[in-house]
Amino acid sequence: MTKLFLKTNRTLSAILSNYKYSTAAKSVAAVQIKGKEFISDDYTNVTPKILSYLGKNLHLQKNNPLSIVRQRIVNYFYSSFTHRGHPSFSIYDNLSPIVTTKQNFDDLLIPSDHPSRVKSDCYYINRDTLLRAHMTAHQSELLRSGLDNFLMIGDVYRRDEIDSTHFPVFHQVDAVRSQRKEELFPGKPDLEIFEPSFDVNNPHMFINSIDDPMKQSCHTLEATKLMETQLKSHLIGLTKVLFGDSIKYRWVDAYFPFTHPSWELEIYYENKWMEVLGCGIVRNEILVNAGPSNTIAYAFGLGLERLAMALYKIPDIRLMWSTDTGFLTQFENIDLNASVTYKPVSSYPQCTNDMSFWLPPNLTVDTFMSNDFYDLVRDVGGDIIEQVKLKDKFVHPKSKKHSLCYSIIYRHLERTLTQAEVNQIHKEIEKAVVDAFGVAIR
Ligand code: DAH
User: In its keyword annotation, does this UniProt entry include Protein biosynthesis (predicted)?
Assistant: First the structure.
């Protein structure tokens, strides 16, 4: 069997063999990840570069800002919820990021034609296995194992554009808090979680509808409203602990396949509203399928990078991955709640080179997969790629040939790049793009 992914010394041909493979699956090959072998197929699109981030666990690295924010969030939940002196939330921060499509999508009622499943947005190892696109992927298995209150913290993987706030790997905290009738309504035996038509002993008989924007049809309005109030006050409590009492925030109605009703929380930061988390009341089908049919639960998911960047004024998401002491020492042994403002070690200049190419006859400016292009640019260029922007789309009036122009912005975080060195890398990217997508450089 061919070993598709080489851990070190990636050559251009190794990178390209992966892209060619992913665009035109030939024979069966295997993907090696941490000594385990996965069969690859026409869905395989993980790249060696992406696989190199597995196990880095920035959220657990001492002195990394992501780890500091993680600890503050964990402390908030530990101190807000204790039962007889013990924290009532359990923490899972070392779950493998390799999950099945069942975990990432099906268990969460994400429809089979939902856009979040497409190959151009996820890193698939094969049709059935992918790098988790959100920490919610572990919700069902942990519920199934009998847990009721838990936090899931880890790295998640999404194919995306390239700029100062997007990186294909980021970190999330996801949580579930479930309550039985006696916990939700202590001392009020006449209040119910469920409508009388829902039978907890026969939960599969009930067709749960989400047509009513206020609640799921199985739940009572009292239970839903009380859960909503608790959920929102817990999350505002957390936001205030992180950003201070005067933080401006607002709730926005949202839609997630796995919760109903659902909301997003936005905070006002640097003159803009910024979304920091998604949350809602867990769809009862998920709880029933995973076991507990007598509880109601809320869940939420938040991104650690956004919070850390806003809290410490970190201007570029790539800095989270920096091993430069000029960066890390700024967060070394600081008091968890200290207010720290990141001081740029020094800002090295950017170099911008454009790349224009004619597409082959089978592609148009609208069908060309930008995310494939972004991954290839990052695979060849590495972390000095700061941003890739689509600059121009063009259709030749006579020949009807389609052409695209991208600007690639290069910047090293720790030193000045010379134009000659950038030109060299730019040439290599051009060569790779020609080989992988059959385009012609203009
Ligand atoms: N998984 C969602 C995302 O990555 C965020 C989210 C929303 C998580 C609602 C939740 C939730 O647990 O209940 O965008």
Answer: yes
